[in-house]
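Intended use. Records like the one below are meant for learning the mapping from a protein sequence to its folded structure. Do not use them to infer anything beyond what is encoded.
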Amino acid sequence: MNTIPMPTLKKITGWIYRSHQSCALSYEDLLQEAVVAYLELPQNEFDPERGTQYSTWMIGKIRFHLLNVLTKSREKSWYEVQSDADEWNMIENMHAYFEEPLFELLELLSPLGQEICSIILQEPNKYITAPKNARGILYRTLRQKGWKWEKIWSSFQEIKKVLNENLVSQII
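Structure written out for the chain above:
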């Protein structure tokens, strides 16, 4: 292991990158991971008596490492990433909602939507400290109050619609 076999690492990375083009990592990031995998190869695991060449063993180990990295980078589906981005944009622009009195915004909601907002406003830290889990926490709270999932879902959709419509009107 005197020098890093960059042409081989580039080939392996190219194979993986082309076959997983929808991955969240760039080619350069994958190439860096390949170099790291090569440098961390456990040399004591290679056994030439098994009839495998060192290059075949090395390629298999690096390929496995790259696929593992891709799997970890895909733990979030596109929908979750998009949903997180939507929620982040809403939180980022939340100051625009509070420039107007909050009650004007709440008046646009149905009584169910207003009840959900009052639950959130009663314990805002519970939802702000864990924004990715806020919907699940709120869902469980409403289920404990006896709400059916259809009622919860339609109320969430209504709140999202009202917030999005008002955000768009304030931006334009």
